[in-house]
Amino acid sequence: MERESHLKRAARRMTKQKKTILEILRSTTSHPTADWIYAEARKVLPDISLGTVYRNLHVLKEDGEIMELNYGSTYSRYDGNPQNHYHFVCVNCGAVRDVDMPVLPELEKRAEEVGAGEVFYHRLEFYGLCPHCRKEKRM
Ligand code: ZN
Ligand code: MN
């Protein structure tokens, strides 16, 4: 019994941490890194560790609540919107923004037509200069 209540306490704590991390991710469109999420989470839960943040990000990703974005850079970014959508990556400042256009299912059909295989989904990123960096370059 003693053990069970200890486990229940641990589970409840985990749930609170998980909920906090999810709320932080859903409140931003900046596609933050784990370090940024950790800094924000500490404002709410001062005792939380970076390892706990990573563990919960992994669980949230496995549960389909969030997406992990990895564009071959050294660290991942996280997205509170798990639905497929397109991104724009700034090659100058590294900002990742959502692209406000519908996902194109015909791309998957085309890939199948040219013999790629049975396509389940696709991901798409655009690369270039974000509006801020573009303005700086012009000056
Ligand atoms: Zn930029
Ligand atoms: Mn996004």
Question: What can be said about this structure in brief?
Answer:
The chain has helices spanning 2-26, 34-44, 50-62, 105-113, 131-138; strands at residues 67-69, 77-79, 86-90, 96-99, 125-128.
List the helices and strands and how they pair.
Layout: H1 2-26, H2 34-44, H3 50-62, E1 67-69, E2 77-79, E3 86-90, E4 96-99, H4 105-113, E5 125-128, H5 131-138
Parallel strand pairs: 3-5
Antiparallel strand pairs: 1-2, 3-4
Residues 90, 92-93, 95, 130, 132-133 line the site of zinc ion.
What is the name of the CATH class of the largest domain?
Answer: Mainly Alpha
Low-confidence stretches: none
Fourth-tier CATH superfamily name of the largest domain: Winged helix-like DNA-binding domain superfamily/Winged helix DNA-binding domain
Largest sheet: 3 strands, mixed
Please tell me about this protein's structure.
The structure is a single chain. This protein has 139 residues and is of the alpha+beta class. It folds into two domains: 1-80, Winged helix-like DNA-binding domain superfamily/Winged helix DNA-binding domain (Arc Repressor Mutant, subunit A); 84-139, Ferric-uptake regulator, C-terminal dimerisarion domain (Dna Ligase, domain 1, 2-Layer Sandwich). 47% of the residues lie in helices and 14% in strands. It binds zinc ion and manganese (II) ion. Zinc ion is lined by residues 90, 92-93, 95, 130, 132-133. Manganese (II) ion binds next to loops.
